[in-house]
Design a protein that fits this description.
Number of domains: 1
Shape: globular
Strand order of the largest sheet: 4-3-5-6
Radius of gyration: 18 Å
CATH class: Alpha Beta
Number of helices: 7
CATH topology: Rossmann fold
Largest sheet: 4 strands, parallel
Distance between the termini: 19 Å
Strand content: 5-15%
CATH architecture: 3-Layer(aba) Sandwich
Order of helices and strands: HEEEHEHEHEHHH
Bound molecules: riboflavin
């Protein structure tokens, strides 16, 4: 009952503000603009992250592998025009600490997206299972509760060989995470009707003719996030 009411309110608020108008089917960028991610499982359009600020939170556990992933993420951010000044890197001890640090960073309001970067390798005990579950659901919750796109940049592998395959060379998953962070930051801005500071343009990610919200009342409309 409560969730039905909430959904109806969200829908009404979205229609009233006119800011969140999904197109069906979602338009995809022309093939010429597509860049393939690591292992070619996902493709990305032409993302302009000129005004996007990204926080990377990385673990010291599995330091070497995580550094490779962070390098991959930075490479993709730069390919999307994110400037060095707009990339912030913070460390935490292990993956279990990632969600809370992501929450602090998201609440600081200083970034448009957060990438949580770590590597979990299965050992002989049940720690792996507990930490994987806690970290993945924790990171999801931070995105949903703070409205800051929070990227799950954590490899959960059975052994080091699997980690190396996914964190080096052409198959560095960090690159996907960098592009995903920019896409989600732009998508959030588009959904909220925020135009890019420099170009004054809206990203074209499928939310239709989003118009900037005009009044504080519209911005605080119940049910809209
Ligand atoms: N943190 C990681 O980021 N990756 C790991 O593979 C990892 N393995 C762990 C295995 C054990 C047995 C323990 C006790 C901790 C491990 N941690 C790992 C650290 C964990 O994420 C966290 O930093 C600590 O549990 C402190 O909260």
């Amino acid at each position: 009952m409560i969730s039905k009411t909430f959904l109806s309110l969200s829908l009404v608020a979205s229609i009233v503000t006119g800011a969140f108008v999904p197109k069906a089917p979602f338009s995809s960028p022309p093939a010429s603009l597509l860049r393939m991610g690591a292992d070619s499982e996902v493709s990305f359009g032409d993302l302009d992250g000129t005004d996007v600020r990204v926080g990377i939170i990385r673990t010291r556990w599995n330091d070497e592998h995580v550094s490779n992933l962070v390098d991959g993420a930075k490479k993709a951010l730069k390919a999307c025009n994110v400037t060095d000044d707009n990339i912030f890197v913070t460390e935490v001890p292990g993956a279990f600490e990632l969600p809370l640090a992501a929450k602090f960073l998201a609440l600081s309001g200083t970034v448009d997206a957060v990438i949580c970067c770590g590597v979990l390798i299965k050992g002989d005990t049940l720690h792996f299972e507990y930490i994987c579950e806690a970290v993945s659901s924790g990171i999801m919750q931070i995105g949903l509760s703070t409205n800051t796109p929070t990227i799950f940049g954590v490899l959960t592998c059975l052994n080091e060989e699997q980690v190396i395959k996914r964190s080096t060379g052409e198959n560095n998953h960090g690159e996907d995470w960098g592009s995903t962070a920019v896409e989600m930051a732009l998508l959030k801005n588009e959904a909220l009707g925020v135009t890019a500071e420099k170009s004054g343009k809206m990203a074209n990610l499928g939310f239709g003719d989003a118009k900037p919200l005009k009044t504080d009342t519209e911005k605080k409309s119940p049910g809209f996030f």
